[in-house]
User: Fold Peptide/nickel transport system substrate-binding protein from Bradyrhizobium huanghuaihaiense.
Amino acid sequence: MRSVRALAATAALSLLAFSTIAFAGGPKQGGILRMYHRDSPGNASIHEGATYSLNVPFMPVFNNLVIYKQDEAQNRMDNILPELAESWAWAGDNKTLTFKLRQGVKWHDGKPFTSADVKCTFDMLMGKAQQKFRQNPRKTWYEQVNDISTNGDFEVSFNLKRPQPSLLALLASGYTPVYPCHVSPGDMRTHPIGTGPFKFVEFKANESIKLTRNTDYWREGRPYLDGIEFTIIPNRSTAILAFVAGKFDMTFPTEVSIPLLKDVKSQAPNAVCVVEPNNVATNIIVNSSAPPFDNIDIRRAMALALDRKAFISIMFEGQGDVGGTLLPPPNGLWGMPKEMLETIPGYGPDVNANREQAKKLMQKAGYGPDKHLAVKISTRNIPVYRDPAVILIDQLKSIYIDGELDVVETANWFPKIARKDYMLGLNLTGNAVDDPDQSFYENYSCGSERNYTNYCNKEIEKLFDGQSQETDIAKRKKLVWDIDKKLQEDVARPIIFHARTGTCWQPYVKGVTVMSNSSYNGYRYEDVWMDK
Assistant:
């Protein structure tokens, strides 16, 4: 079998998952999948990350208890499959979720996987273990879990304070791998050990990440590939040129802009390209705990100043979506209907009228034609952040705000905003699951590590709990829409747009499915193969 140097991945914001597809002769074993990576992750520990720059290369190292079906584009509760768990069941008035675990699974260092590993992982995530994560951005996911109990080596139960139907969806996310109990959190940052289809080989910061086939993988016959190699190329145009020239088998998932997609199709007409929404909301984060943005009038003025359709027209040639916190329908399962969205201040179609209102609010706060507000607008130093930040600066000039761009490298970006070391920021919020619990608790609950704006409304937080317990989907949707509307009216984290972006791969790469409502749930690569 000829070895094909390769790299890369399929999945992410428009996320790519992988499926076994029947081709003549069947899938072939071998080859290295080559892919470029958009930037250098801060470390290799998924549980300490808040970007799919980390998930894309390292998710193949791990397994979850459960995972979304990898060959269906839309993630839903009814397409969750067992992974390290063989089965699960609810009991105790839906307050106990028990998993029967797969036996005979080994960690990459040869040690056996047991229920103790599951308990260790989630005790750390809940902050109840002696060992601690340096960053723990998804701790709020598990606030309704009282404790994790084990029954022998192959049964584990999540014991809840109250019913939370979405817990299973959270456990299926690409952000929820099981870690080994015998490896420290510090070691997982530099040399991750998992049970997944690929083993970690090396991570050279700003250069490359390499994985190799796990020959002892519990899923017989997988993976097909011999390995995956990621070459870190922050310059988007340079990376695309390398893909067109055949140096890479796949682009970084959902990183191909609409204009660049045209270049790919003209220069590499045989390439397979797909455009999908990626469940990533571009938004403004505001440090509302410090002047001048502790003034609600200034925050509301900014929201009113936004011309959302202009962002989408400039960046995506119209291929984007206006929405609230949650991904708009039909790809999103929970987003507000258009007619409801347009009742929110700033979402109406008359941009000039909105900006006149914004100017009055700014004047009320002491600013105007003769006194502008000068601010630094911080953003991450990659194109999908920088480009909308430049447009935002231009739009804010219309309401007496003069912005100066402050770019921050990826390794420093999330720690910087988590400690509220910024005035105003242009941020991308990737939702790891298309479910309100993930988005509401993680981004808007008081004290959450990913609540970068310090927004805290205890009354709305009670509403979070109300929708979370509702088992009737239609009733829950109405509760969710009301909450989302309140968040936008409170200017908690003004949503600018939901992006649609492209992913391309060479025609010999097989077994790829593009996900349409989650950027974090399909990076195993175990079903991908190359007919070359």
